[in-house]
Design a protein that fits this description.
- By secondary structure, the protein is α+β, with helices and mostly antiparallel strands.
- It has 9 helices and 27 strands.
- It folds into 3 domains: 23-193, Immunoglobulin-like (Sandwich), CATH 2.60.40; 209-349, 2-Layer Sandwich (Alpha-Beta Plaits), CATH 3.30.70; 371-511, Immunoglobulin-like, CATH 2.60.40.
- A hairpin with a 3-residue loop joins β13 (260-267) and β14.
- α4 (233-253) packs antiparallel against α6.
- It starts with a helix and ends in a 6-residue tail after the last strand.
- The structure holds 2-acetamido-2-deoxy-beta-D-glucopyranose (9 copies).
- One 2-acetamido-2-deoxy-beta-D-glucopyranose binds next to β12, β14 and β15.
- Residues 132, 134-137 line the site of one 2-acetamido-2-deoxy-beta-D-glucopyranose.
- This is Pherophorin domain-containing protein.
Length: 517
C-alpha cells in the first residue's frame, strides 16, 4: 500500500517536473530561507545585534518598525506568533533540549528543530512559537534562546555553530523570520551575535608596527581522586575551528580584520592552545569582545545542560592572552604601543551532580576508594543472539585518605529501569578481572522492585585484580541503553563501586564518547 502511494506520488512529482524528495517529505519548492510563500516585509523586525548572556543563551530584541508606504495586512494588522532561524541540519540531533524565554518568563512552548517542509533536502529551522505578541506589546520584547546538547553532549551550543549565515556573511550571522499567526507575513532580519564593546579603545587609531599574538588556551585541572581527563584530537580541532570563527565574527563586527587567522598550536591533552595575530591597532578594536568570546569558548567545553560526566571534578579555564611582538608590518615605528590586545579569562569548576542514586546511605564521593570507572565504555556484539555488550573498565587510582582508602572491590551496582520489559532485556554480565583473560558469566541480581538497581556482585577483587578489570552488561537489542540506564545522561550509565562493608560507594558515570562541538 505504502509502495503504491509512493510510486503514484513519484509519478505526480515527475509529471509536475518538480524535484520532490519523498524520503524526507521536504518538497524543495522554496530554495531559500524562510522556505515558504510569505511576505518578507511587515511590522516587526529584530535588532541586528544579538546579546550573548552566558550559558549558551542568546537574546533577540523585537522592534515594531513599520516600513514607510506599507499599509497592508502584514504592516498594519498582523500579530507576531513565531520566530524562525535558519540553522544547520547537523545541529538537529536527537534529544537536544532547547529552551526559550519571552521577556524573562519561560516560553509557553519549548523551541524545537524542524525540517522545513517546503525547503530543500535537509533545510532546517529552529522555531520558537506561541509568542503571543502584537502591535501593542511587541516593541522591545526580548526573546532568549538557550542552546543545549542532548544528554550525551551532542548538539550546537554557539550561534557560530548553529546558524547558516546568509551568503557572504561570516559564521555567527543568522537569518531570522518573524511570522504572523496565518503565516502570510514573515519579515526577515539578519542578526549578528555581538556584545556592544565595553570600552572603545583610547585615542586615535593609527597604524603602528606591532603585532598582537593572541592565544586562546583551554586548560583542564582536577583535584585528587579524579581521573584526569585529556582533550581528544577531535575536540582540539573543533575548538580551534570555533575559535577561528569566533574571532572572524568579532573582527567583522568591529569592522576590522585579522592579520593571521587562528589555528591550533598545542593539543597536549590538558591544554589546547589556538593562536592568531592582529595588527595591534586592529586587535584593540577586537579587545572589547574578548570577555564574550571567552564565555562562548567555555560553552564549547561545557555546553548548557548536564555537564559532561568525564569533566566532573575538573576546573575548566579558558584564557585569551596576548603578547606584543615587534614584527615589522607598517612604516612607522612607535616607541611604545598604546593599544590593548584582546585579553580575557573564564573558568568553571564542575562539581558532581546530585542524583537520587544509590538508594542506600554510603560515601559516593569519587576517589574515596582506590578504584574508579573509566569515563567511556566500549561496546561489542553480545554472546546471545541479537544482543550487545556495554563494557565498563575499572582502574586503580590514588584514593583520598579516609576509611574507604584501603578497601577491596566487592561489587558494582548500576542505576537501571527495573520495570518488567526493560529488566528482561538484561541478559547478564560478563566479567573479567585484570588477571584473567576469559570473561565469566554472572547472573544479575536485582534489588527490590522500585529501587532501580541491578548489581554484579561477589567480585571481591583486590587492587591488582581490579586495575583493568571489565564488566560487560549484555542487553538484548530490543532494549536501548537509554531505556535501560537511568539518570540525566543519554548513552550513559551510573556505575557504583562498593566495598564489602557497603559504606564506600564512589559513583561514576560512563558515556559513549566525549562531546565534540
Ligand atoms: C549559568 O548556569 C548556572 C547553573 O544553571 C548558574 O549558576 C549561572 O549563574 C549561570 N551563568 C550565567 C552567566 O547566567
Ligand atoms: C513610497 O511610495 C511612493 C509612491 O508610490 C514612491 O515614490 C516612494 O519611493 C516610496 N517610498 C518608499 C520608501 O518606498
Ligand atoms: C541530508 O542529511 C542526511 C543525514 O544527515 C545526509 O546523509 C545527507 O547527505 C544530507 N543530504 C544533503 C543534500 O545535505
Ligand atoms: C495584544 O495582546 C494583548 C495581550 O494578549 C492584548 O491584551 C491586546 O489587546 C492585543 N492588542 C492588539 C492590538 O491586538
Ligand atoms: C597558552 O598555551 C601556550 C602553549 O602551551 C603557552 O605557551 C602559553 O603560555 C599559554 N598562555 C597562558 C596565558 O596560559
Ligand atoms: C581567514 O579565514 C577566512 C575564512 O576562511 C578568510 O576569508 C580570510 O581571508 C582569512 N584571513 C587571513 C588573513 O588569512
Ligand atoms: C544534593 O541533594 C541533597 C538532598 O536532596 C541536598 O541536601 C544537597 O544540598 C544537594 N546538593 C547540591 C550540591 O545540590
Ligand atoms: C567521604 O569520604 C571522603 C574522604 O574520606 C570525606 O572527605 C567525605 O567527607 C566523606 N563524605 C561523606 C558524605 O561521608
Ligand atoms: C522504565 O521503563 C518503562 C517502560 O519503558 C517506562 O514507562 C518508565 O517511565 C521507565 N522508568 C523510568 C524511571 O524511567
Amino acid at each position: 500500500m505504502k509502495l503504491i502511494i509512493a510510486i503514484t506520488f513519484a509519478l505526480l512529482a515527475s509529471a509536475f517536473g518538480q524535484d520532490i524528495i519523498l524520503r524526507s517529505g521536504q518538497s524543495g519548492q522554496f530554495p531559500n530561507f524562510p522556505y515558504c510563500l510569505c511576505k518578507p516585509t511587515g511590522a516587526y523586525r529584530l535588532d541586528s545585534t544579538v546579546t550573548f548572556k552566558g550559558n549558551s543563551t542568546y537574546c533577540f530584541k523585537v522592534r515594531v518598525s513599520i516600513p514607510a508606504n506599507c499599509s497592508d495586512y502584514c504592516c498594519k494588522q498582523a500579530d507576531l506568533k513565531k520566530l524562525e532561524i535558519n540553522v544547520k541540519p547537523t545541529c538537529n540531533v536527537a534529544g537536544v533540549v532547547l529552551t526559550a524565554t519571552l521577556n524573562g518568563a519561560p516560553a509557553s512552548i519549548n523551541p524545537n528543530f524542524e525540517l522545513a517542509p517546503q525547503g530543500p533536502l535537509n533545510s532546517t529551522i529552529v522555531k520558537i512559537t506561541q509568542l503571543g505578541l502584537n502591535l501593542s506589546n511587541a516593541d522591545g520584547a526580548e526573546i532568549c534562546l538557550t542552546l543545549g546538547t542532548n544528554r550525551g553532549g551532542k548538539g550546537c551550543t554557539t550561534l557560530e555553530d548553529l546558524c547558516v549565515p546568509p551568503a557572504g556573511a561570516p559564521p555567527g550571522v543568522c537569518s531570522t523570520a518573524l511570522f504572523s499567526s496565518n503565516n502570510n507575513c514573515c519579515p526577515t532580519t539578519d542578526v549578528n551575535n555581538a556584545i556592544p564593546p565595553a570600552a572603545p579603545p583610547q585615542g586615535p587609531l593609527e597604524q603602528s608596527v606591532r603585532i598582537c599574538v593572541t592565544c586562546v588556551n583551554f586548560t583542564l585541572s582536577s583535584g585528587p581522586g579524579i581521573i584526569p581527563y585529556n582533550f581528544t584530537p577531535a575536540q582540539c580541532s573543533a575548538y580551534a575551528k570555533a575559535v577561528a570563527a569566533g574571532f572572524l565574527n568579532a573582527a567583522f563586527q568591529a569592522s576590522t580584520e585579522i592579520f593571521q587567522n587562528f589555528t591550533l598550536e598545542v593539543c597536549s591533552g590538558r591544554v589546547v592552545s589556538v593562536c592568531g595575530k592582529f595588527e595591534d591597532y586592529k586587535g584593540a578594536l577586537v579587545a572589547p569582545y574578548a570577555d564574550a568570546l571567552a564565555s562562548e569558548f567555555l560553552s564549547l567545553v561545557v555546553p548548557g545542560g548536564a555537564p559532561p560526566p568525564y569533566l566532573l571534578g575538573h576546573t575548566i579555564l579558558v584564557t585569551i592572552s596576548s603578547e606584543k611582538s615587534n614584527e615589522r608590518i607598517g612604516r612607522r615605528l612607535l616607541q611604545t604601543s598604546m593599544y590593548e590586545c584582546p585579553v580575557a579569562e573564564r573558568s568553571i569548576p564542575l562539581a558532581p551532580s546530585n542524583v537520587s542514586f544509590p538508594k542506600c546511605i554510603c560515601n559516593t564521593t569519587q576517589g574515596v576508594m582506590p578504584f574508579a570507572t573509566l569515563p567511556f565504555y566500549t561496546t561489542k556484539t553480545g554472546v546471545s543472539k541479537g544482543s550487545k555488550q556495554y563494557c565498563f573498565t575499572f582502574t586503580r587510582i590514588t584514593p583520598l585518605s579516609g576509611p574507604c582508602a584501603n578497601t577491596n572491590f566487592a561489587k558494582v551496582e548500576f542505576w537501571a529501569n527495573d520495570t518488567a520489559p526493560v529488566r528482561r532485556g538484561l541478559k547478564g554480565f560478563y566479567v573479567r578481572s585484570a588477571t584473567q583473560t576469559a570473561f565469566t558469566f554472572l547472573s544479575p541480581t536485582w534489588s527490590v522492585s522500585g529501587d532501580q538497581t541491578v548489581r554484579a556482585t561477589g567480585l571481591d577483587w583486590n587492587q591488582q585484580q581490579a586495575n583493568g578489570a571489565e564488566i560487560c552488561m549484555e542487553l538484548d537489542n530490543s532494549v536501548s541503553l537509554d531505556a535501560f540506564c537511568l539518570g540525566p545522561y543519554s548513552m550513559g550509565c551510573y556505575v557504583n563501586i562498593f566495598d564489602k562493608s557497603k559504606n564506600c560507594c564512589p559513583l561514576y558515570t560512563a558515556i559513549d564518547a566525549p562531546f565534540v562541538p
